[in-house]
Design a protein that fits this description.
about 20% strand, alpha/beta, eight-stranded mixed β-barrel, Signaling protein, 12 helices, about 270 residues, binds ligand C2E, 10 strands, binds calcium ion
């Protein structure tokens, strides 16, 4: 009836208000969190076909004094809306380079960039100073960007990508297959690697269509001389299937969860060339 509908609507409205209020509170705290040193980086290995660590992906964590660890899936979008992602992203890049500089020289670090950072900061300058201050070789830094960056690939963004490449930094497309861009376009923009999103990996090896998509991505990327990394690899069956499809590198809980910097240092020193 009409009355029930109205109650339902009011209930929905109250719930909305609560959620908006919670977001507002979180965004206020987010702004101070950087100054209070509440962010830290975790690192997840990216391994070769043989299982050797080739790189670590830096993944930010927010250690909130009351809430505990807040997921980046919850606070990164908020950081993007509020602009906090700019100073936060700068800190992440600097911190990741400093930590990686202590690893054996054949191990790289992959850092996630938000599309907002392309629009509202001088990324080239930022990357240059992070490399300089840490002493990390440019070839050991990989920048992961999502396909959404290309929806608005302005001349300024393209110029920034070219300059980063000229500096020797590697570029990866994150979450490949969930957005809109084509591989040939990415190749033209000089991307080195693509990361196949975990939604495609999840159903392997059972899902026929899933395997067909992954195979198509790997074949085309390989012919364009791009490296393919599969993320979200959780089972031995997935690993075997991905390798049989020709995937070059793997990442996922099967090998390691993201770990604190101290643990990554230990893993790096055990598995790097010395
Ligand atoms: P992403 O870049 O796609 O990162 C991969 C996510 O998958 C990470 O979640 C990682 O912990 C998780 N993962 C890794 N292996 C497995 C697996 O085998 N199974 C499953 N189910 N999940 C796995 P996390 O750390 O919660 O990060 C979520 C997202 O937040 C990231 O997705 C990225 O988009 C964003 N993010 C994280 N750190 C940063 C950062 O430093 N800067 C920016 N701009 N975004 C970040
Ligand atoms: Ca990533
Ligand atoms: Ca990803
Ligand atoms: Ca993702």
């Amino acid at each position: 009836t009409k009355g029930e509908g109205r109650n339902g609507y009011r209930f929905y409205e109250a719930e909305m208000d609560e959620r908006i209020e919670a977001r507002r509170a979180l965004s206020t705290e987010l702004r101070g969190a950087l100054d209070r040193n509440e962010f830290l980086l975790y690192f997840q290995p990216i391994v070769t076909k043989e299982g050797r660590i080739r790189a670590f992906e830096a993944l930010v964590r927010w250690n909130h004094p009351k809430r505990g660890f807040v997921s980046p899936a919850d606070f990164i979008p908020l950081a993007e809306e509020t602009g906090v992602i700019i100073p936060m992203g700068e800190w992440i890049l600097q911190q990741a380079c400093v930590i990686a500089a202590a690893w054996p020289s054949d191990i790289s670090v992959a850092v996630n960039l938000s599309p907002i950072q392309f629009r509202h900061s001088d990324l080239v300058l930022l990357v240059n100073s992070a490399l300089q201050e840490s002493g990390l070789a440019a070839s050991r830094l990989e920048l992961e960007v999502t396909e959404s960056v290309f929806l608005e690939a302005t001349p300024a963004i393209k110029t920034a990508l070219v300059k980063l490449r000229e500096r020797g930094v590697r570029l990866s497309v994150d979450d490949f297959g969930t957005g809109y861009s084509s591989l040939s376009y990415l190749r033209r923009l000089a991307f080195d690697k693509i990361k196949i999103d975990q939604c495609f990996v999840r159903d392997l090896p059972h899902e026929q269509s899933g395997a067909a998509i992954v195979r198509a991505i790997i074949d085309l990327a390989t012919s364009l001389k791009m490296t393919v990394i599969a993320e979200g690899v959780e089972t031995e069956a997935q690993r075997r299937c991905l390798l049989s499809l020709g995937c070059h590198e793997l990442q996922g809980y099967l090998f390691s969860r993201p770990v604190p910097a101290e643990e990554a240092n230990v893993l790096a020193s055990q598995q790097g060339l010395r």
